[in-house]
Structures are given as structure tokens and as C-alpha cells.
Design brief:
mainly alpha; 65% helix; globular
């Protein structure tokens, strides 16, 4: 059972209602995570703002979804694993094999692998990566801006994973199994 109620968008007023209406018009629904974040318009607005900004990043939607899947599985977040599996397949067009590989932190090419490995290292080392870790992702061809974006995507997903795990947000996407991942 959820520890904080998910708000009903039809009964919500004020800033959260405005945010819910924007989400509804964009997605056709207001997912439980966002309905729960709506208890604090500051939290929901912050999440939406960073998510929207990263959606326009040079990394693109596909790699953003793959990072989200890797991070969700490292952090054991059922909600984000389900949400990003669905979004990755249905909205971004990622095939099932690539989604399953990303859950395990595996990319289908060397450059993607470097990004997913860097995200895992960020998690394992709590951001205190070594020069070798940094040089590995840089050496894979990522620019400074793209490395900043990999960090941004990782941090955004840590936030949503922790939010969902702490509150036990009810999954409203088709559920899919988490995979065991190794930490660095």
C-alpha cells in the first residue's frame, strides 16, 4: 500500500492541478508517480522541469531511456523499471532485447555500453568517479556536455527511484521483472 496518497487530478486544485492538466494533455494520463509527487507542487514541478530539459538533450530519448532502465534495476525500482520499459518500447521504439540488455546495464554497442557503465559507476561510487572512469566515457566519444547529461539522467532517475521505493508507489504500467545487476 502506498505510504502517501496519489492525488485525484479531477479533485485537485491550485498549482498541482495546473501541472496535472499539462501532464494529461501531453501523456493522455497522469501516472501514479506524478499524482503522488503532486502532493508537493515543488517536487512535481522540479521533476517535470528537469525531465523536460533532459528530454531536449544531445543524448536523445533512446539513450535517456536506456540509462533510466539501468538505474532502475541497480536501485531495485519496480515502478521505474515498468514505466521505462513501456515508454522505451511504445513511445521511443526500443526493441525488447535492447530493453532487457539495458536492465542489466548492457549496451548493444561500445558507445552505449560506455554510457551505461558510467551510470553504474556513478551509482556505485556515489558520484566520486575516478579519472579512469571519466576518461573511459570520454574515450568512448562523449563530449563534456553529453557526460554532464549522462550524470543528469542518472541523478533524475535516482530521484524517481528513491521517491517510488520510499513511498511504495503503485505501479500503473505493465509490470516487468527487475534483473540482478552487478555493482562496480
Amino acid at each position: 500500500m502506498q505510504r502517501i496518497d496519489a492525488l485525484n487530478p479531477e479533485q485537485t486544485t491550485g498549482p498541482s492541478k495546473d501541472l496535472f492538466e499539462a501532464i494529461q494533455s501531453k501523456l493522455g494520463m497522469v501516472p501514479n508517480m506524478m499524482r503522488t509527487m503532486g502532493n508537493s507542487p515543488a517536487v512535481l514541478g522540479g521533476y517535470l522541469s528537469l525531465s523536460e530539459s533532459l528530454g531536449k538533450s544531445a543524448l536523445g530519448g533512446k539513450l535517456g531511456e536506456l540509462i533510466a532502465l539501468t538505474v532502475a534495476n541497480v536501485n531495485g525500482c519496480n515502478y521505474c523499471n515498468a514505466a521505462h520499459s513501456f515508454i522505451g518500447e511504445k513511445l521511443v521504439g526500443i526493441d525488447a532485447n535492447t530493453i532487457e540488455n539495458a536492465k542489466a546495464g548492457k549496451g548493444n554497442d561500445t558507445k552505449t555500453q560506455a554510457a551505461l557503465t558510467f551510470a553504474q559507476v556513478l551509482l556505485a561510487k556515489r558520484g566520486s568517479v575516478s579519472t579512469e572512469d571519466f576518461n573511459a566515457v570520454k574515450g568512448a566519444g562523449y563530449t563534456d556536455a553529453e557526460i554532464a547529461e549522462i550524470i543528469g539522467h542518472t541523478v533524475l532517475n535516482i530521484f524517481t527511484n528513491y521517491f517510488n521505493n520510499a513511498i511504495e508507489v503503485v505501479v500503473d504500467f505493465p509490470e516487468t521483472a527487475l534483473v540482478e545487476t552487478s555493482t562496480f
